[in-house]
Each structure stands twice: as structure tokens, then as C-alpha cells.
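User: Design a sequence. Structure:
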């Protein structure tokens, strides 16, 4: 009996610690998109700071060990990428389609910046490129749309909770993107200046061609953080049910 009591006490304390660490969410009906949007906006800063108690890593900044692109003649590796800007994102739309069981989320980051160490070879659109150094990509405005199928399931505390099953995303980058790369063409200034002019004049084409592989790993981290956040707490604690 004592062992059972101790186990129950431990699990209760553990659940209390987890719940106390979670950002407080204003309860909304899942059919009230306006309330959901406002409620989600209130916790953006706390959510992106990370919630280690539920295994949700920091999203401000996002750390990505390696991003690789092998597409359209370009071989590009970015290591130790640090992405900032998500912590000030604005929620544009948050809808729970309870019939189709899909969460639709749209948010905007203005601006968002990636820094890391790159190695590039091959062709970028129509020009040859080679280099190995530091990279900075500055995006004035990035709009992200996520569709996430879900189910209502039991969490580890035996409570009904939202479990996201997968995700699809699209993005819009229509304002401006600026690229800065050191040590292009082994430090040849003339070739480097030409490439920088080309990249920064053709940022839309570059974004359209290579945006998805650049965003793939950051978006996986965002989805995982949202999934863990929702699964960690009872549906009745975050929604009017």
C-alpha cells in the first residue's frame, strides 16, 4: 500500500510540475476562431521560449544542426544554423475543423533571420557558385500556413487531449530577402560582389526554388513543439468542452 501511495504521490507531483510550467491558455470553444487566435497570440512568447518539462525545445531561437540542399544543380550545406524571429510572430488564423479533425494555423514572422556556416557548390539558378564561410539570410516577412490532422486521445495522465498526427505547410515570402555570404569563390571580391548582386536581385526566384528544403527542419521543430504542448495538457483545461 505504501509503495502504491508513493507512486501515486510521485505521479501527482510530476503532473503538477508539468502543468505549472505550461503557459496559461484562455479557454475557447474549438469552433470560435477569433477566441482561439487571441488566446494563442497571448502565449507566443512563452511558448517559443521552450517548455523543457514537456520536452518542447526553444523556438526563439531555433537551432538546426545541419540543413542540406541538393536541388537544381546546387549542393548547399548549412551547419549550426540559428534562426531568430519566431518569438515575435503574429497569429493570423487558428481554426479547429472538428468535422475533418484538422487544425489550420497561419502565423507571420517579421522579420526572420538565419545565421550559420555554409558550404556551396554547383549552380544557383543560372550562375556557378562555390564558397565556404558564414551565411546570413534576412527575410523581411515570412507567412507560414500549417495544416495538422488531429485526434482526441488519452494523454499520460489519462485525460482527453489533442494529439496532432502530421503536418503539411506552405509559405509566402513576398516582401524582401537579403543574402550575405562570406568567402565566396575563395575570397574573390569581384565574383563575390557579382553573386551577391545576383542573389539579392533574384531573391524571389531563389526563395521559390529553395525555400522548402531550407524550411523543412525548422518546420519539423515547430510542429513537434506544438504537438507536445497540446498533448501535455487535458483538453478540458484549454478548451470549452
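Assistant: Done.
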Amino acid at each position: 500500500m505504501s509503495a502504491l501511495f508513493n507512486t501515486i504521490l510521485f505521479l501527482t507531483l510530476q503532473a503538477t510540475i508539468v502543468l505549472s510550467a505550461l503557459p496559461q491558455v484562455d479557454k475557447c470553444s474549438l469552433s470560435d476562431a477569433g477566441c482561439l487566435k487571441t488566446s494563442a497570440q497571448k502565449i507566443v512568447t512563452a511558448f517559443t521560449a521552450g517548455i523543457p518539462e514537456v520536452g518542447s525545445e526553444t523556438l526563439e531561437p531555433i537551432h538546426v544542426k545541419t540543413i542540406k540542399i541538393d536541388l537544381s544543380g546546387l549542393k548547399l550545406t548549412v551547419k549550426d544554423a540559428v534562426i531568430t524571429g519566431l518569438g515575435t510572430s503574429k497569429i493570423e488564423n487558428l481554426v479547429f475543423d472538428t468535422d475533418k479533425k484538422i487544425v489550420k494555423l497561419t502565423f507571420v514572422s517579421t522579420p526572420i533571420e538565419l545565421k550559420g556556416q555554409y558550404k556551396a557548390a554547383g549552380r544557383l539558378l543560372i550562375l556557378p557558385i562555390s564558397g565556404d564561410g558564414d551565411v546570413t539570410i534576412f527575410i523581411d516577412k515570412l507567412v507560414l500556413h500549417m495544416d495538422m490532422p488531429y485526434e482526441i486521445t488519452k494523454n499520460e495522465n489519462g485525460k482527453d487531449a489533442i494529439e496532432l498526427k502530421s503536418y503539411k505547410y506552405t509559405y509566402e515570402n513576398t516582401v524582401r530577402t537579403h543574402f550575405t555570404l562570406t568567402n565566396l569563390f575563395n575570397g574573390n571580391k569581384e565574383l563575390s560582389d557579382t553573386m551577391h548582386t545576383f542573389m539579392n536581385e533574384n531573391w524571389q526566384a531563389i526563395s521559390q526554388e529553395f525555400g522548402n528544403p531550407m524550411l523543412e527542419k525548422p518546420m519539423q521543430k515547430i510542429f513537434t513543439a506544438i504537438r507536445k504542448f497540446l498533448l501535455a495538457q487535458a483538453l478540458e483545461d484549454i478548451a470549452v468542452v
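Residues 156 and 232 are 8 Å apart (CA to CA). The chain has six helices and twelve strands.
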